[in-house]
Design a protein that fits this description.
The two termini are 27 Å apart. α6 packs across α8. Strands 5, 6, 7, 8, 9 and 10 form a six-stranded antiparallel beta sheet that branches. A four-stranded antiparallel beta sheet has the order 1-4-2-3, covered by helices on one side. It has eight helices and ten strands. The protein is globular and about 50 Å long. The protein has two domains: 78 residues, 2-Layer Sandwich (Dna Ligase, domain 1); 111 residues, ATP-grasp fold, B domain (D-amino Acid Aminotransferase, Chain A, domain 1, 2-Layer Sandwich). By secondary structure, the chain is α+β, with helices and mostly antiparallel strands.
Length: 236
């Protein structure tokens, strides 16, 4: 597992990047038993169409570009695509949006993902503290993490007790337990994700930041919809 993970890191460095592309970040997550949406990488529109058919509609299509980190900000993501025609049009729209934002952007292809059923969103992340090292973050995800800032932190390595306490101490914990007809989140699945992010952070010193946001929570299981991993700047 670790050897495969380090290969992904090495490829990014050799490509001159200090971040993983989303499919690389999700591949790394899968190595650490962090569930993600089903995805395929396509180099062009034809491959994206084939990938969409294989995955099964509805799908999400995202741009793959080393020059675009925040894909949604530049119109590089289209969701809820339900037909071949919509898939073809989505690729063209995404490409036009990206090039309008950055005419010099290198487009490496498209990421085609299974559309996940929207539900309560959480975030699991990691930031490196200069003094204490990697610290894991948990909170409500999506836009709520920016607006409410209702998050908890623990320094790596984490125990199961630590992970459970992180979940319980956010103010929004009643939402995860199920409130006013909302389905409860699978707390055990969230504990496992937090522990696996802790393990990844402990084993791979090259990682500087992890941002799994959003993670969709369900009564049974949870799934990472978007993943961003920033690497340490390589010493020359």
């Amino acid at each position: 597992m670790l050897n495969e993970a380090l290969k992904l890191i090495k490829l990014a460095y050799e490509d001159g990047r200090t971040f993983l592309l989303e499919h690389e970040a999700k591949s790394l997550c899968m190595l650490y038993n962090i569930p993600t949406t089903l995805f395929k990488v396509a180099q062009d529109v034809d491959e994206a169409l084939q990938a969409a058919r294989e995955i099964g509609y509805p799908v999400v299509i995202k741009i793959i570009s080393r020059d675009i980190i925040h894909k949604s900000d530049v119109g590089g993501v289209i969701v809820n695509i339900r037909s071949d025609e919509e898939a073809i049009n989505a690729c063209k729209i995404i490409e036009n949006n990206v090039l309008r934002h950055n005419p010099n952007a290198k487009i490496d292809g498209f990421l085609v993902e299974k559309m996940a059923q929207p539900t309560t969103e959480v975030i699991v992340g990691m930031i490196k503290d200069p003094q204490f090292g990697p610290a894991i973050m948990f909170g409500l995800g999506g836009i709520f993490v920016e607006v409410l800032k209702d998050v908890s932190f623990r320094v790596v390595p984490l125990t199961r007790y630590d992970a459970e306490e992180m979940i319980k101490e956010i103010k929004a914990y009643p939402i995860l337990k199920g409130i006013r007809g909302r389905p409860p989140a699978d707390i055990e699945a969230l504990i496992n994700i937090i522990l696996n992010v802790s393990k990844m952070s402990s084993e791979i010193s090259e990682i500087n930041q992890i941002d799994l946001n959003p993670i969709f929570t369900y009564p049974k299981g949870a799934i990472t919809v978007d993943a961003r991993i920033i690497l340490e700047k390589r010493q020359l």
